[in-house]
C-alpha cells in the first residue's frame, strides 16, 4: 500500500443518501417544534394581556364597553374565553378575515339595538352617534303623534267612528266564510239618514184652539165608534 492509498483510507467516507435525508428531517422537526413553542408562548402572553385589560375594565365600572382591534379568529377565541369566564357579554362585528373585531360588555349593560344595528352595518359607534340616534327616535315619535292626531281630526270631520264593513269582514270571514262576512258587512253599515228628522219638522205649528178642536173631534169619533159597536152587539 502506497502513500496515496493510506491517505484515502484515512479520510471519512461521504454520508449515504439515507443519512442525509434523516438529518434534513431532523432539522425540519426541530424547526417546527421551535415554531410551535414560540406560537404557544405568544398565545399565552396574549391571553395574559387580555386578562389584564378585562380585569381593568371590570374594576373601572364606568366604561360601557371594551373594544379590541381587528384580529384573527384564534385570538378572538381567546378574548371570548376570557370574557365568558369573567361572566361578561361579548359580540363580534365586521367581516371575518378582513376587519372582524370583538367588543366586551358587562352582564348588566349590554349593547342597545341602535348600537348593534350600527356596528353590524359596518359603522362606528360612539357617544356622538348614540346622541344622534336618540334625536332620531324623538323626531320619529313626534311625527307618529302628529300622524295620529291628523287621523283623529280626519275621522271627526267625517263623523263619528263606526264599525266599517271592511273590519267586520276581516273579523268574521274565518268563521262564516268570505261571502257571508261581506254580505253581513253590507247589512251592518249604518244608514246615516235613518231616524234623522229636521228639528223644524218636530215642532207643532198648530194653535191652541186647533189643538183643542182636534182633541174633541178625536174623542167624539171614539165615542161614536164605541156606540156603534155596542149597537151591533145588541142586534146580534
UniProtKB/TrEMBL annotation:
Biased composition (Basic and acidic residues): 27-41
Domain (R3H) ranges: 44-107
GO molecular function, one term: nucleic acid binding
Chain spans, region Disordered: 1-45
InterPro entries noted in UniProt: R3H_dom, R3H_dom_sf, SPAG7
Compositionally biased tracts (Polar residues): 7-21
Name recorded for this polypeptide: Sperm-associated antigen 7-like
UniProt organism field: Papilio xuthus
Amino acid at each position: 500500500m502506497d502513500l496515496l492509498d493510506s491517505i484515502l483510507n484515512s479520510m471519512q467516507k461521504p454520508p449515504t443518501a439515507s443519512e442525509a435525508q434523516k438529518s434534513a428531517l431532523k432539522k425540519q422537526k426541530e424547526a417546527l417544534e421551535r415554531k410551535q413553542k414560540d406560537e404557544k408562548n405568544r398565545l399565552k402572553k396574549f391571553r395574559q394581556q387580555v386578562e389584564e385589560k378585562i380585569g381593568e375594565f371590570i374594576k373601572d365600572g364606568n366604561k360601557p364597553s371594551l373594544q379590541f382591534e381587528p384580529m384573527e379568529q384564534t385570538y378572538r377565541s381567546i378574548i371570548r374565553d376570557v370574557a365568558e369566564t369573567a361572566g361578561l357579554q361579548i359580540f363580534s362585528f365586521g367581516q371575518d378575515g378582513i376587519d372582524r373585531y370583538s367588543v366586551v360588555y358587562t352582564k348588566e349593560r349590554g349593547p342597545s339595538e341602535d348600537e348593534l344595528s350600527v356596528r353590524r352595518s359596518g359603522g362606528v359607534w360612539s357617544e356622538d352617534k348614540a346622541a344622534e340616534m336618540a334625536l332620531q327616535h324623538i323626531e320619529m315619535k313626534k311625527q307618529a303623534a302628529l300622524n295620529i292626531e291628523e287621523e283623529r281630526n280626519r275621522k271627526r270631520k267625517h263623523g263619528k267612528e263606526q264599525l266599517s264593513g271592511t273590519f267586520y269582514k276581516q273579523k268574521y270571514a274565518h268563521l262564516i266564510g268570505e261571502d257571508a262576512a261581506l254580505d253581513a258587512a253590507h247589512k251592518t253599515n249604518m244608514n246615516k239618514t235613518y231616524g234623522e228628522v229636521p228639528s223644524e219638522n218636530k215642532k207643532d205649528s198648530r194653535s191652541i184652539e186647533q189643538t183643542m178642536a182636534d182633541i174633541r173631534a178625536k174623542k167624539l169619533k171614539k165615542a161614536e165608534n164605541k156606540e156603534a159597536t155596542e149597537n151591533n152587539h145588541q142586534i146580534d
